[in-house]
Amino acid sequence: xxxxxxxxxxxNQACDCTVTQVTEQFMSAGYAxxxxxxxxxxxxxxxxxxxxxxxxxVYGKDGPPATVILDGNDMSTSIFLENEPExxxxxxxxxxxxxxxxxxxxxxxxSNDESNDVEA
Length: 120
What we know:
The structure is a single chain. This protein has one domain (9-107). 22% of the residues lie in helices and 27% in strands. The chain has helices at 15-28, 39-42, 89-97, and strands at 9-11, 32-38, 52-59, 66-72, 77-81, 118-119. The chain has a 6-stranded antiparallel sheet with strand order 2-3-4-5-1-6.
């Protein structure tokens, strides 16, 4: 789906944690967020998959939503911005999500005090 596209952010933490943080960041900035797809909930319960794909629709005050795709696993998550109703969304969203880069992984062992690595 995102083959050949560059993520706006790569976070070295589990995708489910990243989805929660991204949603909270957008909502605290005044955006409305709707999760429109979650690969794990769409799969058969007997299927074991280490990958996760979540699609968020991020609504500003006016205009169509931006589509944010989180593609990851238990170790890292790539965040893609699919459509930009305004060209400035990429810069806004990258800045808005940058605090996730320094948030410790909630699933990390207590002996690991390093912060998450991020590529922008």
